[in-house]
Amino acid sequence: MPASWSRVSFGLKMGSALSERDLRARLEALGYDLDDEPDYPGGVLFHGNTFEIFPAGALGPFRIEHSGQVIRRIAAFDPIGQEVLSEVKELLIDPMSERLAFGGNAENGRICSTIVSEPSGSRMPGYQRTPTTG
């Protein structure tokens, strides 16, 4: 992974602090569509103490539940039936465009989407993270 790609990465971890205002700003800087159904990569929908996101490079959307300040649960879910498919401990958010990683400014930095670990220690079936260049 190019060093500049990792500089635009950030992770969401169970038990970690969360500022919705800061998160919204970071996601918007990475090219995500805020307040849009997560039916496609780049969609993010905030509602109450939950937000749903379809990260760039992921196979499907995730639901993140929080207490207002701390992340309580991160789960992959079926956007049609809404059922939880699996829970993960950490989710990294990739930018929607490699141009943000390789041509963006430092403020966009530190913002990636890959599953780091599940309780079972395995990755989601079929998930593969491959940054593109262009």
What secondary-structure arrangement, pairings included, does this model have?
Elements: H1 3-7, E1 10-13, H2 20-29, E2 33-34, E3 43-47, E4 50-53, E5 62-66, E6 71-77, E7 84-88, E8 90-93, H3 98-103, E9 115-117
Parallel strand pairs: 2-3
Antiparallel strand pairs: 1-8, 3-4, 4-5, 5-6, 6-7, 8-9
Describe this protein's structure.
By secondary structure, the chain is α+β, with helices and mostly antiparallel strands. It has a single domain, classed as Penicillin-binding protein 1b fold, CATH 3.30.2060.10. It is built from 3 helices and 9 strands. The protein has helices at 3-7, 20-29, 98-103; strands at 10-13, 33-34, 43-47, 50-53, 62-66, 71-77, 84-88, 90-93, 115-117. It has a 6-stranded mixed beta sheet with strand order 2-3-4-5-6-7, with helices on one face. It has a 3-stranded antiparallel beta sheet with strand order 1-8-9, with no helix packed on it. A hairpin with an 8-residue loop joins strand 4 (50-53) and strand 5.
Number of strands: 9
Give the CATH H-level superfamily. Answer: Penicillin-binding protein 1b domain
Q: Based on the structure given, which CATH architecture is correct? A: 2-Layer Sandwich
End-to-end CA span: 15 Å
Strand content: 25-35%
How many structural units, i.e. domains? Answer: 1
Question: Tally the helices: what do you get?
Answer: 3
Order of strands across the main sheet? 2-3-4-5-6-7
Keywords:
16% helix, 6-stranded mixed beta sheet, 9 strands, 134 residues, single chain, Penicillin-binding protein 1b fold, 3-stranded antiparallel beta sheet, 3 helices, alpha+beta, globular
